[in-house]
Amino acid sequence: MKKTLIILILFLSFTMSLSAWEHNLGLEAGLSSAFLRANDDGNKNIFEPSLQARYYGVAANGFCLSFAMGTGLALSSDFTLQNEKTTSKGFGMNFALGAGYEFILNERMTLAALGSLSLDWLRFTYKKEFKAPLSDGYASADWTQTDDALFAGIGAELLYRFFLTEHLSLSASCAIRFIDGGTLWKKGKKIGRDYDNSQTLRGYLIVTPALGACWTF
């Protein structure tokens, strides 16, 4: 995971140093599906409807670069307290960098194929009231816990654009990234006692289709 983060930083620095390209800014609505495995907790599946902003640059020779940042709601029935049968609602953010080549299909349509790196962060917070046993009966008590997941991915993305005007286009994309590694942290408090632990997150993959619009300048 450290190696992936270093590549992300170097790639972003390289992107910012470029100039005199066709520049594009886009806004997209996406739905990410992440399929993870935690060392102790087993499989973790998350669905994340989100909005993402994208910068997309294209050189005269077709070489292209992309940087996208998104945020949205995280939904999962695998992030719960005591394996409860419920769907938890959390919050997520994601960053993705890509580089590849754009093909001009005709005067209105382009299709780009990019290699892609991503970084995702998710947070789920829970609170539950229960009866704690005492020597003379039971008393009401709270159980609170926060789960934070951070994981990196590497894969590929297709980006299609249909130009309505010289500057305005509609876009459709689909990214598939294999999870390169990550960490799940749990921190909580139960019956007045604090606890925290962490475990390793491993594959499987993240799939993110998205639709949006793009402005060229």
Give a description of the structure:
With 217 residues, this protein is mainly β. The protein has one domain: Beta Barrel (Porin). Helices cover 7% and strands 76% of the residues. It is built from one helix and eight strands. An eight-stranded antiparallel β-barrel has the order 1-2-3-4-5-6-7-8. Strand 7 and strand 8 form a beta hairpin. The chain is elongated and about 80 Å long. It starts with a helix and ends with a strand. The mean pLDDT is 88.
Residue share in helix? under 10%
Q: Structural class, please?
A: mainly beta
What's the overall geometry?
A: elongated
The number of E-state strands comes to 8
Q: Can you tell me the number of structural domains?
A: 1
What would the average pLDDT be, to the nearest integer? 88
CATH level-1 class = Mainly Beta
- How much of the residues is beta strand, in percent? over 45%
List low-confidence stretches.
none
Q: SSE order, as H and E?
A: HEEEEEEEE
CATH topology: Porin
What's the number of helices?
1
CATH architecture: Beta Barrel
Largest sheet: 8 strands, antiparallel, barrel
Rg is 21 Å
Q: Termini separation (Å)? A: 35 Å
Placed side by side, the strands forming the largest sheet appear as 1-2-3-4-5-6-7-8
